[in-house]
Structures
1.
Amino acid sequence: MSYILGKKTEMSQIFDEKGRVVPVTWIKAGPCFVLQLKTDKKDNYSAVQVGFEKKEKNIKKTEKNKEYKHIREFRVENEKLKDFKGGEKIDVSIFKEGDKVKVSGISKAKGFQGVVKRWGFHGSSKTHGTKHTVRKPGSIGATDPARVFKGKKMAGRTGGRRITSSGLKVFKIDKEKNLIAIKGAVPGRRGTLLEIKG
């Protein structure tokens, strides 16, 4: 299983072999370092812990795991833990152009929004005596139960949730600059921490 941490830098476009424009997202991925191997016997689950982006300030020897800004774990079967070693470096070379990946991250937080922006409601008509109700949700319940059902699409906080986009294609890799171009859009704004799984 291929896994790496990265930060979203920008969206751009690249021309493919046939001269067609392809929208891509550039991600500065890695290098990450293996900090710890978790096993079923010791931790009751098997996983690999990796660190990304070292802190600039001096760290005590007793706090080695705190020398990285971002520490994440990804699950691995107990048999495949042998493929990883403590201190091992993980970079973009673990992926190849054309690989399908999953990208997880926190989406853009947009604050409290109405139903038109949050759920795509069309709103009321703008003519025939409509006044102050163009962007309102309209009726939210029936008279018989005399309550609003759970899960009703209403106004509320939008974005700021963990989202996973799957089936994305690795379009280009720049090993020297630790950059990876993924076809299409990925969650979050510029600088968002992303988890890329192969």
2.
Amino acid sequence: MDTQTIDTLKSMEVGGRLTAQNVINEARDPASVLHGHFTWDDTAAADAYRLIEARQLIRRVKLEVIVRDIPLNVVRFIQDPADPGIYRDIGTIRPSEAEVARRIVSEEMMKVVRASRRARNVAAVLGTAADVEQIIRLAQTVVQRAEITDQPGGEA
């Protein structure tokens, strides 16, 4: 993000707080450095927002599955790793699609890694004692194992 945008956002803080509505209000002015970060065509913006709502709706659908006598609530639809615009019903992914399953689990674990890194960085800035390094290492290990399993001659 460019420094002008950052400086504008910082200048809008009141007591260290910033609201999305205030950012939109500032960005409405075509002369504002923030203006170009938004879609001002109402039809295009509405369509883009509906896509966000559709993705949220898809992600909210849950499926209860029993694994080793343990009931698990899991998302029913998961993004297809080969085509992120497509969602797959997790219940339809077959054992013969081991590569698809591996890539899905790998991506889920990368989300853990990214979230853990963010938590570590926030904790460092705030000066709190949060030990997330072990979580990051464990998640990275799972991702690496998934990648090794995919290699020819890799271990399962």
3.
Amino acid sequence: MDMKRRIPQNKHQMKGNCDFIKIYHQNIRNLRNKTQELLSPLHPYLPHVISLTEHHRYTQEVGYVNMENYTIGAQFCRSDYQRGGVIIYVHSCLNFANIDLSAYCKEKIIEVCVVKVKTKSQSLCIITIYRPLTGNYNYFLQQLDNVLQTLYCPTTCLIICGDLNINYLVENEQKRQL
């Protein structure tokens, strides 16, 4: 599969000089052996950034999952419990920086990772968040607020991707609080 199709062939042309970023999010529910399944429907218009929740990998395993022309930009893996986790893959044509927010993560409550990407016209923080259904919702809101305050900068656009497990189809207290 030609992973660079629809993304400039000369990656140096694009390094730090994009005028747009295509971002894709998926709750993958176990990344193992799903990279082709994940990328096939996106071909030939591959995204610059792939944000995944519930990758179900431990830290020592996540590096074994390779997507051609993508680098792991940021990740959070559970160490005490199974499943969960968040990860961001960044296409090799982009310059990015990992912003370590692991201090705000708490397994089974809030799992978050962030990359900062610069385009030709702006700076973006791409945030991937997973909130399991059973976690303490008030603690989640406090930590989310802390994350956003930490990242806030008037010249940086914040983009939140993820699975917050809140039903937006009906009025409810969690929706209102968020």
4.
Amino acid sequence: MSDRSRPAAPGISVGLRPERPADRPFLLGLYTAHRWEELRPVPWTDAQKRAFLAMQFDAQAKHYRATYDAARWDLITFRGRRAGRLYVCPLPGQLRIVDISVLPEFRRIGIGTYLLRDLIAEAEAEQLRLGVHVDQQNPALRWYERLGFTVVEVRTPYLYMERPAGFRG
């Protein structure tokens, strides 16, 4: 699969490309950036925190690959720079967002919304529900709600949300 760069809005260039083994250091850094703040109160050294996060990252990657073997494992690019990851898996009757993560310096400029609107259009074209698990404390929860997702199931600390096929909101 080739790079699928396209303009998100005037002046914004967002693309997806398949993940490669050489992307592991970037992906670990992305994972660390998302989890670092929650480890702030833990009385470990930075080295201990990094080792813990590397172990968690590897466990998550193994779980994702085992659970979602048909997924698309893409890196998000912005103006040619690696900005995040988007993992999506087709399942019976739905398209599942396994993970969408963007580095802090690339947030709030429309990348996630652009990609999510693309996924909404893809799901609608196939008449599929679009699903995602969201941590109950994740600020993105309100973002999903604004885009038509509703809570279908609670599995603390996560909510499973779906945007029904054919939703018009």
